[in-house]
Amino acid sequence: MRASHGVSAYMQVAGYKIIPVNPHITEVLGEKACPSLFAIPGEVIKAIDFVDVFRRPEYVDEIVEQAIQLKIPAIWLQEGVINERAAEKARKAGIFVVMDRCVLKEHRARFG
Fold first, then answer.
1. What does DSSP say about strands 31-32 and 27-28: parallel, antiparallel, or unpaired?
2. pLDDT tens across 14-67, in order?
3. How far apart are CA 40 and CA 111, in angstroms?
């Protein structure tokens, strides 16, 4: 089981709506996957609280570019995903950034 799958399953059980973004799959955990952030329908984009990134650091720049254009309020870079340049660019665009932390661990620590 990939970490992205386990964390996403946990967040679903905790009541969060997930939107998988991956150009190589069509569905995850019963949710239709989109090939990029740009492919998420406009009415859904407006409801996104944050993008949880499980990609390698070299792919974060493109994700940040899309998030900036779509005005997504926050980006969460999972453990081991560190890209200071992209994080700074996101912050300068007004996006809240969490880097190198696990959303599952943080959620459990705060909400049990």
1. antiparallel
2. 999 999 999 999 999 999 999 999 999 999 999 999 999 999 999 999 999 999
3. 29
pLDDT in tens, 62-78: 999 999 999 999 999 99
**Virtual torsion, Cα 98, 102, 104, 108, nearest 10 deg:** -80
72, 95 contact by CB (below 8 A): yes
Contact 2, 25 (CB under 8 A): no
Residue 100 in 3-state DSSP?
Answer: coil
Helix (H, G, I), strand (E, B) or coil at 97: strand
Of 58, 60, 56, give the one whose Cα is nearest residue 75. Answer: 60
How many separate domains does the chain show? 1
Q: What is the CATH number of the domain that holds 31?
A: 3.40.50.720
| Residue 85 CB coordination number (10 Å) | 11
Q: Can you give the residue range of the structural domain that contains 57?
A: 3-111
Instruction: Evaluate if residue 2 carries a pLDDT over 90.
Output: no
